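Student:
Attend to each token:
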Amino acid sequence: MVHNTIQIGLESMTRDLSSPNGDTAERKGNVTYAMDDIPPWYLCIFMALQHYLTMIGAIVAIPFILCPALCMAETDPDRSNIISTMIFVTGLITWLQATFGCRLPIVQGGTISFLVPTLAILGLPAWKCPDPAVLDAMNVDERRAVWTLRMCELSGAIAVASLFQVFGGYFGIIGSLLRYVTPLTIAPTVALVGLTLFDHAAAAASQQWGVAAGTFILLTIFSQCMGEVKIPVLSWKRDTGFAIIWFPLFKLFPVLLTIVIMWAVCGILTVSGALGPDHPARTDVKLNIIERAPWFRIPYPGQWGVPTVSVAGVLGMLAGVLACTVESISYYPTTARMCAAPPPPLHAINRGLGTEGLGTLLAALWGAGNGTNTFGENVGAIGVTKVGSRRVVQWAAALMVLQGVIGKLGAVFILIPQPIVGGLFCVMFGMISAFGLSALQYVDLNSSRNLYIIGFSLFFPLVLTRWMSAHGGIIHTGVEALDAVLQVLLSTSILVGGVIGCFLDNLIPGTDEERGLAAWAKEMSLECVAGETAETYDFPIGMSFIRRWKWTSYLPFMPTYEPGKFTALFFKKKL
């Protein structure tokens, strides 16, 4: 049984999907497990662990920036509770997204896009932290009152701002604008995600370049050079007993293998004394995290207090929601292509954006201090591992929920040395940038028009956002809320790059062939093609009822949605 199951999984590389065209068969050959494939459960666990380890570093990094801005003490035990809350909500919304949302194998979780408006809001005079001397003189309850008041403000602002994405997604408002999101919009938006994050990769990798270099060298060897190398594994089945099978270890688990090997290397360097005390590559510098983490704790909505709402907070967070929306729209067709899946139809995109907004709303109500967005690191992990199975991400979501409840379980993985995380980021962020630039294959790169748009939309956002970060208080309109909004908008490179690319591509004259619109329309299919996309993006349950009910064709988030019907119904009296 084991042998047959693994053999079926290996043959999935060349097996054709049941579709009316040959494009799917070509896409299928690019991955080991495609989106609708179901690997054996024991492989799912380890491949899900790869996704967990890929996202845990980014999740944990957010509270280390957020908590000081909230005026929390470094020794406050609620820091680990905020981390557990983030991971718990990440697991819930990831499962919901992969199962009933866009149904792509994407991980939804905390994002740096919300940190920028968060820091801008907490930098306003009304929310600045008291003097350190005043904070030090406070007792535990007084200090808790200070940071929970700020957390409630963030929660309310994020919750209200998320409604834009919820209603805009589920009611098809955002999806109706997709015709303006062209390859010259996608390329700078996605590419800038990776290019902008190089500071974070450099900060982690530079703590010990030898360990970081060993990490990305091993990952490169395992994923790119040894993908076809198989190792003998002893298996057993009831009919024939024990047998030797050849298992593609390096193809399926390059990230996990790299982490385990480099973690062991860091452990040897720690025991041998080669690394000095408190060196970031040591494996014992974060042991106190395990000691302080609770064994069992279930996060719940409103755990820090009742959310509060202000105009300045909502407008600031709206910039983060817009940035996440543009970024996710860019990821959906990219992820589908990486997973050997057909392009997501309009109803799946609408549902995905609405579900992401719902995840941001839940994260706000639970008190995570952040929203949710598609994790670019995990999209990059799909490209490295060639495993795009939806079932793997669902297992990863279960691991996240479990870790969010059992604090000490997640604390073990938080112990991964930062240089290892930095080495992984060097590869993952590079993959994200490369996939963003791959959208340029649809446009005419011999056109001076296109080269101008590409160059300006990539370069200028880096210049502007770097300057804005160095001159935080440069904008003075006389309205503090407007100053914060403009600061956030102009400091978000993916938003600036996407807007510039979209504006210039739709403003500067160019033929459809030159702009790549014909080829992109085929890739970014907004219609549900019978046979190919129906089963892939349909709900896992209840489709017989949905197809029987005629009214579902009017709802932009239903698999039976017929574009134009909802608008025609809404404006029927006016027309």
